[in-house]
């Protein structure tokens, strides 16, 4: 996930990503990027996606794909239901490095 930041994802709001798993590919729309103050030593943000509910995706690690960043494994959880579909969230919480970047560890 090198180089993926809140700024990267803010540029993708209203874009579709693909969730790739054993049974196929499901498109989800990125609806928001929420940043929070996690302190000077950590970067913390979350991504909220909307899907049409077919199929429902249970909590788990999925390959998330977009032409902007390729394909990365991310842990996603369902957070609610709306208008016949579901909302999902991916949370990033990682330690900043001495040069201001973030650690992938």
Kindly summarize this structure in a few lines:
By secondary structure, this protein is mainly β. It has one helix and six strands; from the N terminus they run H-E-E-E-E-E-E.
Distance between the termini: 10 Å
Q: What is the tally of helical segments?
A: 1
Radius of gyration equals 14 Å
Major beta sheet, strand line-up: 1-2-3-6-5-4
Mean pLDDT: 89
Give the low-pLDDT segments: none
Strand content: over 45%
Question: Order of SSEs, N→C?
Answer: HEEEEEE
Q: What does the main sheet amount to?
A: 6 strands, antiparallel, barrel
Q: State the secondary-structure class.
A: mainly beta
Domain DUF6916: 4-92
Protein name: DUF6916 domain-containing protein
Question: How would you describe the overall organization of this protein?
Answer:
InterPro entries: DUF6916 (IPR054209). Residues 4-92 form the DUF6916 domain. Pfam families: DUF6916. This is DUF6916 domain-containing protein. It comes from Paenibacillus aurantius. The protein is built from 1 helix and 6 strands, in the order αββββββ. It is globular, with a radius of gyration of 14 Å. It has one domain (6-95). It is mainly beta. The protein has one helix at residues 6-10, and strands at 16-21, 24-36, 42-51, 60-66, 70-82, 85-95. It has a 6-stranded antiparallel beta barrel with strand order 1-2-3-6-5-4. It starts with 5 loop residues before the first helix and ends in a 10-residue tail after the last strand.
């Amino acid at each position: 996930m090198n180089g993926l930041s809140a700024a990267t994802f803010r540029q993708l709001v209203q874009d579709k990503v693909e969730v790739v798993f054993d049974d196929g590919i499901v498109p989800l729309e990125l609806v928001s990027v929420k940043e929070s103050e996690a302190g000077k030593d950590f970067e913390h943000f979350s991504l909220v996606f909307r899907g049409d509910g077919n199929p429902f995706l249970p909590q788990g690690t999925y390959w998330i794909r977009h032409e902007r960043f390729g394909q990365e494994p991310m842990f996603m959880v369902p957070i609610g239901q709306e208008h016949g579909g579901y909302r999902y969230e991916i949370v990033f919480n990682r330690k900043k490095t001495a040069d201001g970047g973030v650690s992938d560890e």
